[in-house]
Design goal:
By secondary structure, the protein is an alpha/beta fold. The protein is built from 8 helices and 5 strands; from the N terminus they run αααβαβαβαβαβα.
Length: about 200
């Protein structure tokens, strides 16, 4: 079904299907998800995105070195991060995915290696907050904080968390995360080195 859909529909439609199913089946009135259905939806998403990735050749945004993405030290959840990565790649954004339980210094190492303009960190547990804060601290210490947009996301994050950590944006939704990066990119062709 996925193979046929890739040739028949736009890649975002194919990627959106498992996410729509997740919301339709797992969302309850209190906006809580049932864990077994989250796990099934996550596995469905991984299989669909693995088949869709080879066909994803989105129009490249102005080259910025892309975005360094990861789930910081203290958290091993990856579903939201993985959804964002697939959406970003399909939209032409270069994604450098560090995985889960990532040490703060690794974000900076990848940033320096790639020249990325953005760092995206996702968390589903508050144990990752200190690592997120450490990433911001390291950026400040290196004197590059004003050159890099930092975005946090995940179910435990909030606008208050973002303000406390002094990051540039916060979201709980992968689609909104993509719109945030695209918005930063369009504002005066923002990229690393332009503040």
């Amino acid at each position: 079904m996925v193979r046929r859909s890739v040739h028949k529909h736009h890649r975002c439609v194919v990627i959106q299907y498992p996410i729509t199913q997740l919301r339709a089946r797992a969302l309850v009135p209190a906006e809580e998800y049932y864990l077994p259905e989250l796990l099934v939806a996550g596995e469905m998403f991984k299989k669909v995105s693995a088949r869709v990735r080879p066909h994803m050749k989105g129009a490249k945004l102005t080259e910025t070195g892309g975005i360094v993405v990861g789930t910081p030290k203290g958290d091993i959840h990856n579903l939201g991060k993985d959804i964002f990565c697939v959406l970003a790649e399909s939209s032409g954004i270069t994604v450098h995915d560090l995985g889960v339980d990532v040490e703060p210094a690794a974000f900076l190492e990848k940033l320096e290696e790639t020249g990325a303009s953005y760092i995206g960190m996702s968390a589903l547990v508050t144990a990752a907050f200190s690592s997120m804060q450490e990433v911001v601290h390291l950026l400040e210490e290196k004197g590059v904080r004003k050159q890099v947009k930092v975005i946090i996301g995940g179910g435990v994050t909030s606008k208050e968390t973002a303000a406390r950590m002094r990051v540039d944006a916060q979201t709980r939704d992968a689609y909104e995360g993509l719109r945030i990066v695209q918005g930063f990119s369009k504002k005066g062709d923002w990229k690393r080195g332009n503040t």
